[in-house]
């Protein structure tokens, strides 16, 4: 059995399954993360509707922090954690606990698409795609400095050799004087 849970004060809604029917009539127990998601406080009124959701085959989730990628075998950790969820609703934030640390994930997309924007993940294989974490910063690739190209120099012309002519003439005159 799957249910749509809605906060009538702000129209926020999500979907869930039933763990067990032990609460007295008119009372339901929701996990803390779901109460936060719906902006509920203890004793708040909720609207619960029995619903049918398609079996999911794909979801795209976005970790809140990049440290989940440092977990050894994150795929296995996520697969195990998702077994405790009966549904995934687009826009929800789910919590995965591993080694006493909580990791939060936003559900960005679910398939097949449907009016409820939700899927059942009980007894089905769901392909999971990751979006970059919320705290992800694109690495800055250092650019190789471009070699500075000097402007082409104009052909340098040497000044005319005025003194060569002068010294040649002087030498010529000196040689001429010696002969006299």
Description of the structure:
The structure is a single chain. The chain is of the alpha+beta class. The protein has one domain: Vcp-like ATPase, Chain A, domain 2 (Roll). Helix content is 18%, strand content 27%. It is built from three helices and nine strands, in the order ββαββαβββββα. The strands form three sheets. It has a four-stranded mixed beta sheet with strand order 6-7-4-9. The protein has a three-stranded antiparallel beta sheet with strand order 2-1-3, with no helix packed on it. Strand 6 and strand 7 form a beta hairpin. The termini are far apart. The mean pLDDT is 81.
Q: What's the end-to-end separation, in Å?
A: 134 Å
- Number of separate strands: 9
The amount of beta strand, in percent, is 25-35%
Order of helices and strands: EEHEEHEEEEEH
From the 3D structure, determine the CATH topology: Vcp-like ATPase, Chain A, domain 2
User: Tell me, what's the shape?
Assistant: elongated
Mean pLDDT: 81
CATH C-level? Alpha Beta
Number of helical segments with 4 or more residues: 3
């Amino acid at each position: 059995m799957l249910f749509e849970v809605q906060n009538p004060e702000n129209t926020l809604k999500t979907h869930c399954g039933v763990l067990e029917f032990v609460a007295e009539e008119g009372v339901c127990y929701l996990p803390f993360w779901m109460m936060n998601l719906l902006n509920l406080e203890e004793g708040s009124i909720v609207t619960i509707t029995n619903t049918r959701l398609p079996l999911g085959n794909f979801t795209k989730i976005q970790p809140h922090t990049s440290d989940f990628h440092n977990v050894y075998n994150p795929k296995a950790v996520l697969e195990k954690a998702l077994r405790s969820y009966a549904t995934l609703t687009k826009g929800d934030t789910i919590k995965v606990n591993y080694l006493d640390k909580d990791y939060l994930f936003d559900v960005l997309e679910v398939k097949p698409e449907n009016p409820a924007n939700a899927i059942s993940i009980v007894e089905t294989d769901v392909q999971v795609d990751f979006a970059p974490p919320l705290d992800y910063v694109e690495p800055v690739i250092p650019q190789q400095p471009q070699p500075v190209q000097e402007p082409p120099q104009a052909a340098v012309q040497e000044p005319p050799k005025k003194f060569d002519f002068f010294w040649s003439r002087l030498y010529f005159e000196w040689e001429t004087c010696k002969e006299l």
